[in-house]
Amino acid sequence: MSTEYTPGRGTAPRRHLLPPVLREPFEGRTWREFGYLLLGLPIGIVLFAYSLTMLLFGMGMLITFLGLPLLAITLASARGFAVMERARARTLLGLDVGRSQPVRAKKEGLLPWTGAMLRSGESWRNLLYALVQFPWACFSFVVSVTFWVTGWGLLAFPLWQWAYHDAGDGGGIVLFRNASGTTIDLGAPLQTAIVCALGLVLVLATPYLLRGLTSVDRLMVGALLGPSRLESRVSELETDRGVVVDTAAADLRRIERDLHDGAQARLVALAMDLGLAKEKMTEDPQAAARMVDEAHGEVKTALQELRNLARGIHPAVLTDRGLDAALSALAARCTVPVRVDVDLPGRPAPAIEGIAYFTVSELLQNISKHARAGRAAVDMWQSDGRLLLQVRDDGVGGADAEAGSGLAGLTERLGAVDGVLLVDSPRGGPTTVTAELPWRE
Predict the structure, then answer these.
(1) How many of the other CB atoms lie within 10 Å of CB of 262?
(2) What angle do CA 22, 28, 34 make, to 5 degrees?
(3) Which of 207, 249, 295, 348 is close enough to 352 for a disulfide, judged by CB 3.0 to 4.6 Å?
(4) Is the pLDDT score of 73 beyond 80?
(5) Closest listed residue to residue 248, CA positions, set 236, 240, 259
(6) What is the mean pLDDT of residues 156-168?
(7) Which residues make Cβ contacts (< 8 Å) with residue 336, sequence separation at least 6?
(8) pLDDT higher for 304 or 209?
């Protein structure tokens, strides 16, 4: 008796009376893989015939204006076939391949679209798949059908052997007969048992054969129908660049708003008060002195707001003394007791240092506002060329980075520099947030 676990579902284990090797011929995965190989041949015939015909016709027409548009149409068709093949692989093989990147032409019109399509490496890989899939589909179709039919046919031999009895001697299936009348046939019980045993071996081996055949299909689909690593990286960098630009724009708007509503408004009011005090200097010196004294207080308040604003942009303690002192200063301003442990061999790049600082700052603010915690801890260390930080609290939990909160913004900010943010915050707590950043000196 064996036990099969379904990972990630939290359900009780299912118990089976048969071992896995005996269950494989009846598993849904085996039948889906066999169906994938059966469909591969007719689909491969259509793909190969259409793609090769259009490719040769387009190349032959290159001496005219129609050649390039025909090749572009061929590539566009290959991209359409790729969508269908990715769906087939996802449905029958459980292989989820990333969708292709759209082909973007700089201008509208047939010529810009043709040029963009011809420059698309992914489109040419899709066309290559249509050409190489056909011979492999022929081979895998023949092998899989042969083993499948032969295995089940031999295993079920006692059920259909009556249909092939030789009418002359009443024996079994005649395998050989020479001119002298010597025959070799199948019909005796021992022979039947041997045939059934051979069929059972083939039936049990066929699922693993199908798995090996479909593994080649998985490789072809992943390599030729999915986006390349370079294209994925370019798309990721474009997304990260957009995140960085949006974050920088939001920071500039915040700074402008803070200056306009805070220090700037106070300085305008201060200038007006000093102007009134100047006018009253000769008429009412005591009133002028009170106004100057009030203006002095406003100057101190404005200076404090400017210091706070400068600290929000980039704190001086971080530049001068590093993350250990800067995080200790953050912990001192938190509304709950915070233990800080920083174990770093040196200082990372200023950009990474700033992101780490503001990540901890945002997390400690969340603890002060939402966690209802009694204590918190901040740990930071280096491991395998990466800067890792972890912020823990014993609060109520329930933090979710996918709920559009500040944690989502932190995830995007870290992702812009190849960092990651992991949140473990069950209802009732505790909450542990782990961030990983590249170490760039």
Answers:
(1) 17
(2) 95
(3) 348
(4) yes
(5) 240
(6) 65
(7) 367, 368, 371, 373, 374, 375, 376, 393
(8) 209
Q: What's residue 2's pLDDT?
A: 38
- The residue written with tokens 């973007």 in the block is 104
Cα 219 to the chain's mean position, in Å? 18
Over the chain, what is the mean pLDDT?
78
- The owner of tokens 């810009």 is 112
CA atoms of 3 and 258, how far apart (whole Å): 62
Residues of the chain with CATH 1.20.5: 230-313
pLDDT tens, 350-376? 878 888 888 888 888 888 888 888 888
Rounded distance between C-alpha atoms, residue 298 and residue 263, angstroms: 10
What tokens were used for 409? 């913004």
CA distance 104 to 108: 10
- Beta carbons within 8 Å of 361's beta carbon, 6+ residues apart: 330
Report whether pLDDT(135) > 90: yes
This prediction has a pTM of 0.55
- Which architecture does CATH list for 321-438? 2-Layer Sandwich (3.30)
Q: In one letter, which amino acid is 313?
A: I
Report, at the CATH architecture level, how domain 230-313 is classified.
Up-down Bundle (1.20)
Given a cut of 80, whether residue 201 has pLDDT beyond it is yes
Sequence ranges of the chain with CATH classification 3.30.565.10: 321-438
What pLDDT is stored for residue 254 in this prediction? 62
